[in-house]
Specification:
The protein is α/β, with parallel strands linked by helices. 46% of the residues lie in helices and 12% in strands.
């Protein structure tokens, strides 16, 4: 991979697995120094740090265990990134959780937690990182939203609300920094092939009495016209494009990577 991010630094939240880890790997291979953040088993975190570190040419990537459900955790994470990397040139807000239930049965604590992690953490992290970007005269902010940041599905009231909010926040930040060398964009993936997503297939097959292949195409990917997974690398490639050379003209947009979902 061409090292188009040589000399840049990046903080990627929710990057110990899945989409976030894929983006962190792309950035490291492109020459950036990257800090990881997220929860998980200690051995999985250690593996992610070693893999991204190897791409950076070091023993392990720096890591923040900050809790992004709280404002102070977001500020702590950015402070740790500044201490470890010297700057935060690129901020990718990817951390997110999910819970599914009808709204009249939706637990209030789950609502509050999803709003905090999926939406408010983006605000707190941007607020903490933006002054450094302004001082340096360059910055790239990417918020990982979702197809559900553009359209809705039932039983996902908190998630859909949060992701719509992320798209709105993206547009607002973009307008505020429009006359600087800082940009803010959102990526809106559909169903992405990750271990957590693939784990949903066997229960669906059992529930509907169908094969796992049918469970995937007719139930999990029901609204994704391609009937194929979006791959992590598809999202990571978009995230690299939005921070690489000649990316300054892309600002305030929500880019769909969803197998045609939002075109339907």
């Amino acid at each position: 991979m061409e090292r188009v991010l040589e000399g840049r630094t990046a903080l990627v939240t929710g990057s110990t697995s899945g989409i976030g880890l894929g983006i962190a790997m792309f950035y490291a291979k492109a020459g950036a120094r990257v800090m990881l953040n997220g929860f998980g088993k200690p051995e999985d975190i250690a593996k992610a740090r070693a893999e991204v570190g190897a791409a950076m040419g070091v023993a392990e990537a720096p890591y923040s265990a900050a809790d992004l459900s709280k404002a102070e955790g977001c500020r702590q994470m950015v402070a740790e990134a500044l201490a470890a990397l010297g700057s935060v040139d690129i901020l990718v807000n990817n951390a997110g959780i999910q819970f599914v239930a009808p709204i009249d049965e939706f637990p209030e604590d789950k609502w509050d937690l999803i709003i905090a992690i999926n939406m408010s953490s983006n605000y707190h992290a941007i607020k903490a990182a933006l002054p450094g970007m302004k001082a340096k005269g360059w910055g790239r902010i990417i918020n990982i939203a979702s197809a559900h940041g553009l359209i809705a599905s039932p039983y996902k009231s908190a998630y859909v609300t949060a992701k719509h909010g992320v798209v709105g926040l993206t547009k607002t930040v973009a307008l505020e920094v429009a006359r600087t060398n800082i940009t803010c964009n959102a990526i809106c993936p559909g169903f992405v092939r990750t271990p957590l997503a693939e784990a949903q297939i066997p229960p669906l097959a059992a529930k509907f009495g169908v094969s796992e292949e049918v469970a995937l195409t007719d139930h999990l990917l029901e609204h994704q016209p391609s009937k194929k997974w979006v791959e992590v690398d598809d999202v990571a490639q978009m995230a690299l494009w939005l921070v690489g050379p000649n990316s300054g003209g892309m600002n305030g947009s929500a880019y769909s990577v969803d197998g045609g979902w939002t075109a339907a």
